[in-house]
Amino acid sequence: MSRNVLKTGELAKMAGVNKETIRFYEQKGLLSEPVRTSGGYRQYTQNEVSRLIFIRNAKSLGFSLSEIMELLAIADGSIDRCGDVRKIAEDKLDHINTQLHHLQSLKSTLTNLVDQCAQTSSIHHCPIIESLSKGTQQDEN
Amino acid sequence: MSRNVLKTGELAKMAGVNKETIRFYEQKGLLSEPVRTSGGYRQYTQNEVSRLIFIRNAKSLGFSLSEIMELLAIADGSIDRCGDVRKIAEDKLDHINTQLHHLQSLKSTLTNLVDQCAQTSSIHHCPIIESLSKGTQQDEN
DNA sequence: TGAAACCCTGTAGTATAGTACAGGGTGTAT
DNA sequence: ATACACCCTGTACTATACTACAGGGTTTCA
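ok -> structure tokens follow
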């Protein structure tokens, strides 16, 4: 039975990260400095498990550690000037919407590719390149 | 008027990357070694502009350079064993679908946050943390 | 023909996000 | 009381993706 207190290694195991990463996040300010035992061992709680899972999830969405720090600041309530929060969240939303559109169009081109691939045995005109080759070309004039 | 041939700096400008990046991509194999002038200057064409735009777009979707190299190999037709192509494209699709789901759920929580924020002047219970804190916790038994 | 603008190579530096020791201390179980 | 698992700090190393020189050659255009 756990005494409700976790050592670094236990936290690492529960959150699915490794020990060094926990120390690294502490250095970077994503985790605050924990209470220590008299011997100097870090003592964590379930809160840190959640926080690490939060970080892991946000990372899987493509957020950088500094963006995650902002999100955590919102979540912690340490940013509570409403305008600031809205600005951050709205910027995030813009970015997310852009990513969603790109991903959706790539998804359909890839789906087409896979379908075509299922029918023909070699690819001669691939739709991916046409799709991804479109873009704002800086014309030099 | 262009003679249809681009120097490194011109290509860079047109594709919206910088010169060093072009050389870097050549080193990494994302661009093949171009024809040179007698003086050793690289000579590019419109194809390389498209290729760089392709790379830029793929990067904005979160693909790494090595993944982009795979995509380019498909696009180039240099991978044309149908099974290989399908495997790569399907793996990509899985990944994209996962990212889409994560982004969609984050989008809705962020949208809620922004809405709440528009109504209240400070945030006391933020939905982001609940949303992103959910996840597979490795239970130690 | 000479100077400005551009290109070349090679190497080193930056930022991000960890990962891997070395050398030493702590906790606990037998 | 001692061995083993585990923790500590600090530092160095890795990978990815560039970015920035230094020192020198090339093109172009007046």
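Chain B touches chain A through 61 residues (CB under 8 Å).
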